[in-house]
Amino acid sequence: MCLAIPALVKIIEDKEAEVEIGGITRRISLWLTPEAKVGDYVLVHTGYAINILDEAEAEETLTLLREIAGLVEEEG
Amino acid sequence: MRFISEFRRSELAEGLISQIHRQSKTPARFMEFCGGHTVTIFRYGIRQVLPPTIEMVSGPGCPICVTANADLDKAIALAQVPDVIIATFGDMLKIPGSYSSLQEVKADGAEVRMVYSTMDALNLAEENPSKSVVFLGIGFETTAPTIAASILQAEEKRIKNYYVLSMHKLCPPVIRALLDSGEVRLGGLVCPGHVSTIIGSHPWEFIARDYGIPCVISGFEPLDILRCVDMLVTQVENDESKVEIAYRRGVRPEGNQQALKLMEQVFEPCPAQWRGIGEVADSGLKLREEYRHYDAELAFVIDAGQPCEPAGCICGDILRGVKTPADCPLFGNACTPQYPVGPCMVSSEGSCSAYYLYGGDFGG
Asked: Structural domain of residue B327, as residue ranges?
């Protein structure tokens, strides 16, 4: 039930935003993330953005996972 | 989809699986608290790729499953009050209470509307000024701030016919209750991702500090879970217990301060009843004095009768992690997703539903 889906913020109007989720447009509330900007990816839970996704952290995690995969191959 | 497909890549999963197998020497039982994690673990066959040293058990992290029948019965009774419209997330409709379900009373004429968001419930209230709209406030810390926001929006828009039946639950207190019961011994905890998006990592620290249990906050994609298990194994092998965040793109140590502020403004902690666990102090949320006029329990006379449990159902034991669905005599026979007896089979995030849909040999 705590499902939250990444969505791209396209338009902001007051405390609401139009976001794109996998090609579908939805209207969501920004009451919990007033700092969100157009172009941010937010996590949407029951129609509310609950957080702004940290793109740099996501990339860092993926780099680490690639390193782990590479490291294992070298040792194997 | 961005931030999803990258975290499902099989070649990166293979690297993590190899690393887990290489590192893990000490037998350890890890609990995934959250029902969303249970679904990912089953859907992607993660139990099957872990070494025999690691046992995964599911915890009580499905808000609908842990809602006590006494609370469900209140919601069902409210649906039968004249001129009341119940607005609820869809997962609640089929959950059986002691004597009926929202779906059954809806079939008998009660006004029960499925909504995606509290914003839809507020719209319902505005469109139906002669009726009272009661939103069923179910959920953990992830959802409670959205319901707090709806009350503040009702205040702002002067909507007088919107109410909340608050059945919210808080996660850290129930984990403490589980650990204090001594029934389940854990070598690590997969902490819930989106609960932590709101509350941050600090509220889990007592588990690592006081109980010596490694804690890692995980996201919901298969690579997130594998990375989380990998980090737990590292802590186990190094004899450490600390709180770490594997889901760094979605969780900051301090959480979402704005969401916490709104939740704190509208709600205060109260005791709550958990199915299978009983009453846990400070594990629920009630409306603060200044927002009590939105409290459905005070606004309506609710006659729900005495709650009772279905015979033979062991959902309570499963939620505590002391039994698995395969231990239940009803599982797969008298209790299936089509004809569910207990809530863990109804909710898409319930352990029984996950075992039934993905479990295969049910052994994991």
From this structure: 315-357
